[in-house]
Specification:
It catalyses: 8-oxo-GTP + H2O = 8-oxo-GMP + diphosphate + H(+); 8-oxo-dGTP + H2O = 8-oxo-dGMP + diphosphate + H(+). The chain is of the alpha/beta class and about 260 residues long. The protein contains 5 helices and 17 strands. The protein is about 15% helix and about 30% strand. Strands 10-11-12-13-14-15-16-17 form an 8-stranded mixed barrel. Strands 4-1-7-6 form a 4-stranded mixed beta sheet, covered by helices on one side. Strands 3-2-9 form a 3-stranded antiparallel beta sheet, with no helix packed on it.
Length: about 260
């Protein structure tokens, strides 16, 4: 059942050719004035989310967004509003024009994992954490994953081992997620999923890893992503098999990144 009090809001992660993303400050007169955020705004009546995103970027920053890929969704309760946020990723070749502060706001480009402005709008904390995770990693499900290229922020994700101190990021089968989260509430936990039941169990994870070994794995993930056409609640990363399997363009379907099996 939908919550009629929820305000539908769109926000865009706009990239430039250097892989940086745009943040802008909220103008004077608005709630949280001076806080930094991803540009966007409320979806008007009879307006699609993409149309709302395009309108907001034109109104706020004077640029034209040609298309965007749905990514993450979040629900957040502010003092002044209960919002359902739909985040879109806008690649450098999906917008054009000259950035202009049409609402007298400030704006700046930021590198993933290296934020230099503050304060940030509270709802954006998990989005910034997700952006800091490289879109391309390599490794193996049994031993762990790491950043694929030197140009990306260094990150290592290891399988959880009982009795051993947890690192900042670990992963477990989705069935173990709830128990581990209770034991280690401050640990960043990813969940491994192979089917629909595990997908549901993993919706509170920091990210989902979906291993792909055959076309059936691909089709099931496509089905699940299509059930969330406006973005998924958690970030999804793929572990692609070393065996040749035809792959869709996952990034346009809301998948954050790819882990290449070594």
């Amino acid at each position: 059942m939908s919550d009629s009090s929820l305000i539908e809001v769109v926000a865009g992660i706009l990239y430039n050719q250097q892989g940086e993303f745009l943040l802008s400050s909220r103008p004077a007169g608005k709630a949280y004035a001076g806080y930094w955020e991803f540009a966007g705004g409320k979806v008007e009546a009879n307006e699609s989310r993409l149309a709302a995103l395009q309108r907001e970027f034109t109104e706020e920053l004077g640029i034209e967004v040609t298309t965007a890929a749905p990514w993450l969704t979040k629900i957040h309760r502010y003092e002044h509003a209960h919002v359902h946020l739909h985040f879109y990723r806008i690649a450098a070749n999906q917008w054009h024009g000259q950035l202009t502060a049409r609402e007298q706001q400030s704006w700046c480009w930021q590198k993933p994992g290296n934020l230099t402005v503050a304060p940030m709008l509270p709802a954006n904390a998990p989005i910034l954490a997700a952006l800091a995770i490289p879109a391309n990693m390599s490794g193996h499900l049994n031993t762990g994953f790491h950043t694929a290229t030197p140009q990306q922020p260094a990150l290592q994700i290891l399988p959880y081992q009982p009795g051993i101190a947890t690192t900042t990021v670990v992963y477990v089968p989705a069935s173990q997620l709830k128990q581990l989260a209770n034991q280690h509430p401050t640990t960043n936990i990813w969940a491994i999923c192979h089917n629909y039941k595990q997908w549901l169990e993993a919706q509170t994870a920091a990210a989902i890893i979906w291993p792909i070994a055959n076309s059936e794995d691909i089709q099931l993930l496509l089905t699940l992503l299509q059930q969330h056409p406006s973005g998924v609640p958690v970030m999804v990363l793929l572990e692609k098999s070393s065996q040749p399997v035809a792959q869709p363009n996952w990034f346009t379907l809301g998948v954050h990144g790819v882990i290449q099996e070594q």
